[in-house]
Design brief:
Layout (H helix, E strand, L loop, with lengths): L4 H33 L9 H30 L6 H26 L1
Helix pairs in contact: 1-2, 1-3
C-alpha cells in the first residue's frame, strides 16, 4: 500500500507543528527571562524578538529535514504516526536542539 503525498504531508505536518510550537515556547520563555533580567540595558529590547525569530527559524530549516526523514522511516516501516508519536518526536527534537545550543555556549566560556 502506497501512501499518497497528502498522507505524507499530514503525517509530517503533525510532527513539524509540535517541533515548531515547542521551540517557540522554549525561545519565548528564554526571551522573556532575558528581557526581564536585562530590563535597564538599552540593547535588551532586541533580545526577545531575536530569540523568537531564532525559535521560528531553527525548526523551519532543520525541522523540515528531520521531519521528512522520520516520516520516510515511518512510511517505509508501514507504521502509522499517532498524535502522541508526533508530540514526542517534535518535543524531543526541540530538547536535543536546546541541549546542543547550550553545550556550544559552554564551549565558548
Amino acid at each position: 500500500m502506497q501512501m499518497s503525498l497528502v498522507d505524507l504531508l499530514t503525517c509530517g505536518g503533525k510532527y513539524f507543528v509540535w517541533c515548531l510550537v515547542s521551540s517557540l515556547v522554549i525561545h519565548l520563555i528564554s526571551g522573556l527571562l532575558a528581557w526581564y533580567s536585562l530590563g535597564g540595558h538599552p540593547i535588551a529590547v532586541y533580545a526577545l524578538p531575536s530569540f523568537v525569530i531564532a525559535g521560528f527559524f531553527t525548526p523551519l530549516f532543520a525541522g523540515t529535514v528531520t521531519s521528512a526523514v522520520i516520516v520516510f522511516v515511518y512510511e517505509s516501516a508501514k507504521f502509522t504516526m499517532s498524535p502522541l508519536d508526533a508530540f514526542l518526536w517534535g518535543v524531543g527534537q526541540t530538547i536535543v536542539y536546546t541541549l546542543v545550543a547550550v553545550s556550544r555556549i559552554y564551549v565558548t566560556l
